[in-house]
Amino acid sequence: DAGAVELGGFPDYMSKEIHEQPAALRATLKDRLALDGTVSLDLAGQGLDLRGVERIVIAACGTAYHAGLVGKSVIERLARVPVEVAVASEYRYSEPVGDGKTLVIAVSQSGETIDTLAAVEAARGFGGRVLAVTNTRGSLITREADAVLLTHAGPEVAVASTKAFTTQVAVMQMFALELARVRGTLPEERLLELGRSLRLVPEKVEETLAALEGEYAERLAEAVEVFEDARCALFLGRGEAFPIALEGSLKMKEISYVPAEGYPAGEMKHGPIALVDERCPVVAVLGEGVVREKTLSNVDQTSARGANVICVARSDDADAKRLSRVVLPVPEAGGLIAPIVDSVPLQLLAYGVATSRGLNVDKPRNLAKSVTVE
Ligand code: G6P
């Protein structure tokens, strides 16, 4: 209930919720991620035994689907279990394949999305086990699931999801660590190290916000300006940065109405590059490791065709600086930190573009906070 949550000095709920992310992440990690990096989710205590899981399906809608895509990548990388991510409205009618060794993870901020509930029902049809990841205690989905992992984001009022998304990602990451431990796919010491990296996420998000609203505020303003007469936009990333690019493009179209496509950077040359000109900004999430270089070379191809490029990269990334008009900096982020931290500049960018156009960011046209009828 929007009326019950105070704005506390923020101009709107979206801005408030973006700034609540450090606290929301802290609350979500609390009691689940120990100082030494040990994860304890108490799934066995809820009757969900991970030992027999051979396959995972993540079903969700909208932003929660993007959190699911990050989940797939981290679960497969750490726990070596095949994961399929399905849009719930498709999954429910797909005559899904599965058995008692299939775990269905339903991700839903509200816990009331009709298609996600139906996906859970479809999984029941083949005897699958169900884990719900939701922000809403006592919601319908918690009653349909074998086990529940709550995100502790607090009430999210703005239609465009921010803190619910980043806490969903943190839960997926903790789940991947837990599953990797159960399956013994990585040495204990490596898992603890990754767990400890995740503990740093709240302060890294704080740092990112402070930098983009302090030292680098002009860069953010310049990125917003690039969008002033944009006809469309391309959001690019690879690996775990790809779902973050998708989520960035969803935020942009939801609240600013700029037609925006999220695409895997390497696939862009098979279509979307045809859109590129000076009025179609390219927003690239570089990420880390080998994907960074590959994304940079894709970005280079777009700037060669006149694109105004905005890169989410480290502030000291000389290549990013050379190839782009604006670098939106994120702090050094090893281990599991990058997807959450990389989300923040894209939230602020969409927010900046929408408010610069005088739009109501909390209640964009045609959209509902939760979709409870089909
Ligand atoms: C609506 C909201 C989105 C949300 C989606 C799924 O489309 O506008 O922000 O991601 O529903 O909602 P859920 O509550 O299931 O996460």
Automatic annotation (TrEMBL):
Record's protein name: Glutamine--fructose-6-phosphate aminotransferase [isomerizing]
Enzyme class of the recorded protein, top EC level: transferase
Subunit structure: Homodimer.
Entry function: Catalyzes the first step in hexosamine metabolism, converting fructose-6P into glucosamine-6P using glutamine as a nitrogen source.
Active site positions, chain numbering: 369 (for fru-6p isomerization activity)
GO cellular component: cytosol
Keyword rRNA-binding: no
Superkingdom, taxonomy of origin: Bacteria
Range of the intact protein held here: 244 to 617 of 617
Compartments, record wording: Cytoplasm
A single GO molecular function term of this UniProt record: carbohydrate derivative binding
Record domain SIS: where: 44-185, 223-364
A biological-process GO annotation: protein N-linked glycosylation
Entry EC number(s): 2.6.1.16
Keywords associated with the record: Aminotransferase, Cytoplasm, Glutamine amidotransferase, Repeat, Transferase
